[in-house]
Structures are given as structure tokens and as C-alpha cells.
Structures
1.
Amino acid sequence: MMEIPEALVIARQINQILAGRTIVQVTAGQTPHKFAFYAGDPAAYPALLVSMTISQAKARGGMVEIAAGAATLVFSDGAAIRHWPVGSKRPDKHQLLLALDDGSALTASIQMYGGIWCFQGDDFDNPYYQVAGDKPSPLSEQFDSEYFMAILAAPGCEKLTAKAALATEQRIPGLGNGVLQDILYRAGIHPRQVVRLLDLAAKERLFLAVKETMTEMVASGGRDTEKDLFGQPGGYQTRLSKNTVGQACPKCGQVIQKESYLGGSVYVCPGCQPLSN
Ligand SMILES: [Zn+2]
């Protein structure tokens, strides 16, 4: 799933190649998908989007938001967004296709679940969308040590585990179960470690790990487990992911393990991320 680094990379790529392109044709909802969510009726999307010119794209947490004339188009984290150059074979299955005036196309396909939201003005009151715009990005200056410590000190957070605190309930929109793995590995903290048992030094390490891991992921073009606008994997080599499970940890030599935890797989190095009670 797209998270903050990939959303930033894809938004940048859209700005590089699609700014100034006009949308000439729109197909919304071609392939039925139970967990593809639209803003209102997708049948209204052509009327909202055709003849609009794409001005810019930006990341909003783990979402990509595109401004096109009077319309705003938002892809949430479960959408795979791809560009298809002139002459390339477009996919048969998709939940949105925008044909552009240069003959190329942009598609969105929903993986497990996700939103493809189009609206005019600010006529959209989805809580995930709102909170993703209201809270500061971990890459912003506003997201400083004080801000991070306040998240961990908020009522109820102390009894949560590190995974629950960082990657659930939109405390940090766009930080999901993907980037979480390398953040915790870098900080030396187990996903099941209870926040209350983290000392100040561990919390500081965690803060730095959020900043440094995200920065590195963006600089490398996103994670190698995700694809960019052109269908290419990112250049950031994930330390803990499906790509490294079963391998020896480069720091301590112990075998990287996979567990199911809180509705998703977590990857752990038992040597680097000891669990204390
Ligand atoms: Zn290790």
C-alpha cells in the first residue's frame, strides 16, 4: 500500500509529466470492486473531470491529491496509480481511467480497498481525508520532538503497543504498517512493545527513526516493495519486509521473522528488537 514516501514520489512524478495535460475522457467504475469507494456516484466523474487541466499534485498523508481545473481528485492509500504512455497497452481492469490530450492515460486500480474521490471545491467531508490534511507530515518541521512526544503522552496511548501507537487511528496519517517495520527496526523497538515501558531515550530514538527512515525512503524514490507511477519498484531497500524475511539481520545476524499482529504482518529482528515486560 502507498504510504507517505510513495505518495510524495508519485505526486512528484505526476507534476513532472502531467502538469498542463487536459483530461479528454474519463471512465470510472469500469471494473466492479466491492471495496473501491467513490465520492458520490462515479457516473458523475466524467462531468466533473472532462476538459479540466491538471495543474498540480501533492501528497496528503499517504494519499495523492490532484488539482484539475475546478475539480479535485484524491487517491487514497489502497489505490495503485499508473501512467500509460502513448502507444502502450492499457490495463483492462481498473476503477478509474483518465485519457489525456497527449494520448497518454492515468489509471487507478484498487488493491484490497481504497478511495478514488472526485469533488469540486471543498465539497467532501471524509474524515480520513480531513485528518490527513490537518495533521503535520512527519517530514515537516512542525512534526518535531515535542509534537511526537505529545502523541505518545496523549490519554490512552501509554497502554498501546508501538505498532498500535504509530500506525493505527490516524495518529500519524500516512504512516502505515509498511514503513512502520523499518522505523521500529531502526529504533530497536519491538512492534508489541508497550509504550509505557519505553524510556525517554527509546522515545527519542523512535522519533529520530520516524524522521530518518521517511527521509531516506523519499530520497530513494519509495520502498522496493511498492511501485511508482511508472510501475517501477522504489529504490529504497526495505530492511524488514517480505523481501528480507528468513534472512540474517545485517546488524546482528539473527534471522528476521514474520508474525501476524493487529491486522497485518509485522517483521521483527529478535536480536535488534528485544521485547521487555
Ligand atoms: Zn538484528
Note: Residues 4-134 form a domain with the N-terminal domain of MutM-like DNA repair proteins fold (CATH 3.20.190.10).
2.
Amino acid sequence: MSFDATTTISSEFGIFGIPMSEAESRVILLPVPWEVTTSYGSGASFGPALIRQASEQIDLFDLELGKAYEQGYHMLPHPKEIKDLNDKMKLKAQELIGLITEQSQDETKMIKLRAEVNQASENLNEWVYSQSKRIIEQNKLLGLVGGDHSSPYGAIRAVCEKHPNEVAILHIDAHSDTRKAYHGFNHSHASIMYNVMMAPWKPQKLVQIGIRDFCEEEYEFIKSRSDIKTFFDMDVQRRLMGGEPWARITQDIIKELPDKVYISFDIDGLDPAYCPQTGTPVSGGYSPDQIYYLFNELARAGKKIVGFDLNEVSTGGVQPQEANEWNGNVGARILFKLCGWSVITNKA
Ligand SMILES: [Mn+2]
């Protein structure tokens, strides 16, 4: 099949090859091709297209998920208007980053560009919020597929408003994403968890794992908040090297969580061997198997996955058809597990 990132693939070739419509499906995946404020590697806006393409290779039969897929996973059509806005606004963001880097004195221009980018991010957040709300109100399970890590802000808001003060965000990421702003962008990928935890609808708790790249300001912010628990990767790796089993560490993570959990999964939380093209890779991190074990234990502990996102799966800047397919392959498998566990943990 020839492939165009903006093509709306018919339900006949739905995600994972599951031929079920939105109405028939339990899990609705919202694609958000957005990477306006990414500063380092680019290509995360192709994430949904890349994952969708790779998903066709996955066997639906899965030892731990059984036939959860029979309840239907449906990815909504690729939102071309969002991708177009992304492409337009990313140029403006790049221009601003360039001016900052060369220590430009053109304040007027920088203020204008920053305002335009911030406005576009707010519009995106509103769009994601209304789409997410629509999905949740139909009593369906929501999964957002980014995009960079700023994309799920509106989805997290919709889920938190639905379950006020009952949800914890389980945040898997190499980065803490608790910067106040980055390059003056209020809704940068590096600020998502700061913004979430400062919102009036904030979740009950933020539990972070994989974190191994953060600045001092972020560290101070984490420490200042009793509703944030961070399992720094250095501490976890030391425990593993000292001979502690991953099983015990996962229990410590689960103990921090209330019954309702929203999973925000930045693919760079994994070892970059599994996501070499992601925008800001950092050595260290987890294998997919460790994460699958954690998901399994979450379900066994009776936790309910009330929503999730998967973000920063990237082509590394090239078009999806030219991309290293390994990134989409791993991303699609992670997404399949997230869909399955969200169905299983929400069984009536
Ligand atoms: Mn992130």
C-alpha cells in the first residue's frame, strides 16, 4: 500500500488491522500530529501515521491480553487541519528559537512570534479537550497518540475533570517535563507535567518513572510538591544493580497510585535502543518487557486505566515512508498493550 501521512485510511484497514468503526469500538484513539515546540529532533508529528502503518504487522492474539481486541480499537481519521497548523506554526517557533540562539535584539519580533506560538498551542489544547470529552462522554476509553508530549494536555484535562481528584498520572519518561516554560513557550513538551500540576483541575497525584534528565528548577519543583512522587531512574537502576528484583520496584510504584490511573507514556522513557529516532533520547531507561510487567501488575492490583497517551514516537524528521520502521514497530506494540489493558481493567 502506498503511504501518505495525511491519508485517511478506511476502517477496512483500521489500526492493528481491526475493521471496526468508531461506534463499534470500546477504545478510541485520537491522533494528534503536533510538534510545534520541539527543539532538538523533529518528526513526532508523524507519530500517529508511523504507528498506524506499523500496527498492521501485529498479531492480535496476545498471551496476557487474550481477546481484549474483540471490543474494538479504532483510530480516528488523521486530522489534516491540525498537521497543517503544526507545519505552519513550527516554522514560527523555529524562527524564534533561532533569534534566541543568536541573541537577537529584535524584541518586537520575538514577542510577536512567541504570542502566535502560544496561541496556537492553546487552540490545540482546546481542540484535544473537546475531542477527548466527546469520546469520554460516549463511555468509551480514550487513548491519545501524539505528537510531542505537549499534545495530551487537553486529554488529561478531560479525564481529570471526569474523575475530580481521583486520578493519578503514571508518567513514564526520560524527562520530568516540569519546566515552567521552555524558550518562552507556555505549552512546550518540556512543561506538560508542570502545566498539569498547576491546573485548577489537577490530578490527585503525579507518579513519575524513568526520569533521568531534568534541571535543578525541575528538581526543586518536584521536591516542593507532596502530590508528586518521582522514581528517579538513577535510584531504580542502582536498586536493580544491587540485586533487587523489578517485581519489588513495581510494587513500590503501584503503592503510590490510587485506583484510577491515567498513563502518560513518552516513548523516550524506554531505552533509546527501542526508540532511536525519538526527539530527545537519553541513555538508560526501560525495556518494553519491564513496562509490560508493570502494566500486568497494575491490573492485578485492581487499578483502572481511565485514559492514556503515547507520545514522541518519531520518524527522526523524515517522511513516514522513509523512516526507520523500528520506531513505529515498538510504538505500535506499546499502544496495543495500552489498549488491551485499558479494556481489561475497565471490565464491569
Ligand atoms: Mn516527555
Note: The chain is about 40% helix and 15% strand.
